Amino acid sequence: MALAIPKFLKMDPVTYFVIVESQFSVCNIMSDEQRFTQLTARLEADVLEEVSDVIRKPETRTYASLKAALIKRFSQSDEERLSKLLEHTEAGDRSPGQLLREIQNLAGSDVPENIVRGLWMKKLPTMSQQMLQALSTSLSLSQQAEVADKMHTVSSSSVSHVSIVDN
């Protein structure tokens, strides 16, 4: 099987390495040297520039060093994630479930579920908030997201008809 490493995900380097390491496993690429070589051969020039100090020094020319440097240099800081979480996360055209997943990704594992739930609920329309509040004790957060997605689908597919009446 051919190695299929995607373009580097600058906004989500951790997920990128989950994909890359799955590919390495499928293609039976196990040695650090092979992984380092395969990865550097596929990274874009601007990404390589960010880690040129790592790839140029013989003592740091390892896959583990390269991976750590890429994750550190391209991951958002805790402050950036928190700012985005609190200020810039909006539902837009996305479903409530998609919004929840973005909030969960930004929050990471450090933020308790009740905080994530509260942040998510505040971003939803008032009607959805009220219905989900009533269900909050009997449904998990993922189940609430499913209910919210169904409400979103129903409200999105409803079309208002306007009639013009001539006098």
TrEMBL record:
Q: Where is the DUF7041 domain?
A: 5-87
Which Pfam families does UniProt cross-reference here?
A: DUF7041
Classification via InterPro entries: DUF7041
At the top level, the lineage of the source is: Eukaryota
Name of this chain's protein: Uncharacterized protein LOC113473488
The taxonomic lineage of its organism, from the top, reads: Eukaryota, Metazoa, Ecdysozoa, Arthropoda, Hexapoda
